[in-house]
Amino acid sequence: MLTTDNEAYARRAQMMRLHGISHDAWKRYTTEGSWYYEVIEAGFKYNMTDIQAALGLCQLKRADELHRVRCSYAALYRQLLADADQVELPEVPPDVTHAWHLFIIRLRIEELRINRNEFIEELRKAGIGTSVHFIPLHLQPYYARAFGCRRGDCPNAERTYERVISLPIYPAMSVEDVERVAASVRRIAEASRKVQVSVAAGV
């Protein structure tokens, strides 16, 4: 979806979305349109299918309801994981309305005996599917090949990437599902916690 209050941008987007055709192609088959058209630019085929439009219209009617569910699950995650010392939770400024399309936690890897990938594997063994959003672009083969990017170019992105996990969050989940995911995260984090050994002075 594209929105703009710039009329020139809107006209160009309308043209480019369907092959760069000069007139609205949909009107060619109505009494308002003409059969004649010109291809002004090398455009794209960005119009959605009828099935996509039908699904989109139905989902839009439920948008507020689905958002409320996501918000409630995000709040539950935040509550259940609040005192999990090895996990950093997403922060939301008070003046921001979050979509909660994703719920991304950051592991304090320095406090764990396992890395992020091993943590994901432990969750998988518990029957919980997770993902990683997002893998830094400069680590992808295309950018290495096209622009010479290599590991070390973006150290902050790399450090973040190595400790993030996207937990499941979607409206079809139940409260019990969220509780099970949170409990598994806590269990794995606690079981993998580095043991702090203190040595008395003079010993």
Structure at a glance:
This protein has 203 residues and is mainly alpha-helical. The chain has helices spanning 7-16, 50-61, 63-80, 116-125, 141-147, 155-161, 175-191; strands at 87-88, 103-107, 164-167. It has a three-stranded antiparallel beta sheet with strand order 1-2-3, with no helix packed on it.
Written account of the structure:
This protein is mostly helical and 203 residues long. It has 2 domains: 7-47, no CATH class; 63-191, Aspartate Aminotransferase, domain 1, CATH 3.90.1150. It is 40% helix and 5% strand. It contains 7 helices and 3 strands, in the order αααββαααβα. The chain has helices spanning 7-16, 50-61, 63-80, 116-125, 141-147, 155-161, 175-191, and strands at 87-88, 103-107, 164-167. Strands 1-2-3 form a 3-stranded antiparallel β-sheet, with no helix packed on it. Helix 3 (63-80) packs parallel to helix 7 (175-191). The N and C termini lie far apart (67 Å). 11% of the residues are buried. The mean pLDDT is 92.
Structural class: mainly alpha
General shape: elongated
| Span between termini | 67 Å
Can you summarize the main beta sheet?
Answer: 3 strands, antiparallel
| Portion of residues within helices | 25-40%
One letter per element, helices H and strands E, the order comes to: HHHEEHHHEH
The radius of gyration computed from the alpha-carbon positions, rounded to a whole number of angstroms, is: 24 Å
CATH class annotation of the largest domain: Alpha Beta
Average pLDDT rating: 92
Percentage of residues in DSSP E strands: 5-15%
CATH architectural type of the largest domain = Alpha-Beta Complex
Total helical elements: 7
Sequence stretches where pLDDT stays below 50 over 5 or more residues: none
* Number of distinct beta strands: 3
The tally of structural domains comes to 2
Taking strands numbered 1, 2, ... along the chain, how are they ordered across the largest sheet? Answer: 1-2-3
> CATH topology of the largest domain, which one?
Aspartate Aminotransferase, domain 1
Specify the CATH homologous superfamily of the largest domain: Aspartate Aminotransferase, domain 1
